[in-house]
Design goal:
Length: about 220
């Protein structure tokens, strides 16, 4: 295909499963074109997998979207399946449920993979972000807990089979929910976590600190 690999104007979409049985693709909106990112090896067939969108109810009644994917012939949905729940919830960043070949190994071993689109991100618009920062930052954490409880209630997993993951600002999320509700989680992955918040926020010489004041508050 001509133009593959060249910069494109406009947006792009990354489907959670590739179109076809052996490619991971970008679909560019303007102009409408496909770009093959990589070949997906190992006999991959998109029809073996199920993707879902569920909604958890937060403590204030807000509906929180959850993206879910699993291999349908390996998952029982009776509470016995292992589940990895990912969250971020900062800087108005949208965590798109895009396809990643690296997740197939997990799915092909019977894991459920889920993304909690919590407040502080931008998935549901500007107000979604505004309601997850400064004095409302706690919503980010309670939203994630609500998603966790929903997944257990609906038998996607149990607390003995639930692992949570977040990186950077998502590591702050992981640290917070582990302290708030430690009994809910079997394991946690906090990658480069932002957890020494007070010390960092008090030192404006640290890169990115002053920008954080608009998200987490000015500490002086």
């Amino acid at each position: 295909m001509s133009g593959v690999g060249e910069p494109w104007p406009g947006g792009k979409s990354e489907p959670i499963l590739p179109s076809g049985k052996n490619k991971e693709v970008h679909f560019f909106l303007f102009p409408a074109m496909f770009e093959c990112l990589c070949w997906v090896l190992g006999g991959f067939d998109a029809l073996d997998y199920v993707t879902e969108r569920q909604w958890a109810t937060a403590s204030d009644g807000t509906q929180i979207p959850i993206s879910i994917v699993y291999r349908k012939n390996l998952v029982k949905l009776d509470g016995s399946d292992p589940l990895l729940l990912y969250g971020y919830g900062s800087y108005e960043i949208c965590i798109d449920p895009d396809f990643k070949a690296s997740r197939l190994s997990l799915l092909d071993r019977g894991f459920v993979y889920a993304i909690a689109h919590i407040r502080g991100g931008g998935e549901m618009g500007r107000q979604w972000y505004e309601n997850g920062k400064l004095l409302k930052k706690k919503n980010t954490f309670t939203d994630f807990i609500a998603c966790t409880e929903y997944l257990m209630e609906k038998k996607y997993c149990s607390k003995d089979k639930l692992c949570i993951e977040g990186r950077s600002a998502g590591g702050l999320l992981i640290g917070a929910v582990l302290n708030m509700r430690p009994e809910l989680f079997k394991a946690a992955v906090a990658g480069v976590p932002f957890v020494d918040v007070l010390t960092t926020m008090l030192d404006p010489t640290i890169p990115l600190t002053t920008a954080e004041w608009e998200v987490l508050s000015f500490p002086f």
